[in-house]
Write a structure and sequence with these properties.
Layout (H helix, E strand, L loop, with lengths): L7 E5 L5 E4 L3 E5 L17 E9 L4 E7 L3 E8 L1 E6 L4 E5 L3 E5 L4 E6 L7 E8 L9 E5 L9 E7 L7 E2 L4 E9 L3 E4 L7 E8 L1 E4 L2 E4 L3 E5 L5 E5 L3 E9 L1
């Protein structure tokens, strides 16, 4: 679907991302985070963190606090054990997503429960629309059940179409697309900006070619756009943002 507007595109190449090596953790940072600071990459709209982590077997983050942040974890490979001050204990399997709204305050820990196999994941933070509120927790067991050549809405500000409601005017969808196939991100006037993050594979979006780890900011485009598959299968996270 061709758009008749003139969006501004900003590509964030995988190799240009920030990085950290803590031995047990290898991290790539799309936006400034922790000791990595780049004033040109502080986030996009309400999207503040897009970290691509590899956690060595037995490694992990001990109990630590968060507040006023919408936190999403997508496990690409391996497993992630989670415990929090809300009483949740879970092991997130590859292909599944976890949502935690920190609200007025929450503590949690995250560990790779395998003694040897690595866990690969994306951790994503969105700023909430308003501060405070009771913390929330949800899991989305997407796994390999996501339909091929389709866009699956997972999270939204209003919880529409069976998605999980979040505390921001935003949508997070998952896409699977095969070579020579395409999926359409529908028009969304109230959410005129988008971010496309390639988890695996290679796709074309609005004239840009995106490979694994690449991200694309699409500003001022309330209309729909296509994602064209260029490898056997590509997997992507797609955001619509206010």
């Amino acid at each position: 679907m061709q758009t008749t507007s003139h969006p501004t595109l900003t590509k964030r190449r995988a190799d240009d991302r920030g990085r950290a090596d803590h031995g047990w953790l290898q991290a790539r940072f799309t936006f400034s985070f922790a000791d990595y600071f780049d004033p040109d990459h502080m986030g996009f709209r309400s999207l503040r963190v897009m970290n691509n982590d590899t956690i060595r077997g037995g490694g992990g983050f001990p109990t630590h606090p968060h507040s006023d942040m919408e936190i999403f974890t997508y496990v690409i490979e391996g497993r992630l054990a989670h415990e929090d001050s809300m009483g949740n204990r879970a092991v997130i399997e590859a292909g599944n997503l976890q949502y935690m709204s920190a609200g007025s305050g929450v503590t949690h820990s995250e560990f790779n429960p395998s003694p040897s196999a690595a866990t690969r994941l994306y951790q994503i933070w969105l700023r909430p629309k308003a501060a405070g509120g009771a913390p929330r927790y949800a899991e989305v067991p997407l796994g390999d059940a996501a339909p091929a050549d389709a866009l699956t809405l997972l999270f939204s500000g209003d919880g529409r179409d069976g998605s999980t409601a979040i505390r921001q005017d935003a949508e997070l969808s998952f896409a699977r697309v095969g070579a020579g196939r395409s999926v359409t991100v529908p028009a969304s006037g109230p959410l005129p900006h988008a971010w496309v993050q390639v988890v695996s594979g290679e796709v074309g979006v609005l004239g840009e070619t995106l490979a694994e780890g690449d991200g694309l900011a699409i500003a001022d485009n309330p209309e729909g756009f296509a994602i064209d598959g260029r490898s056997a299968e590509s997997r992507l996270l797609v955001f619509r943002l206010a």
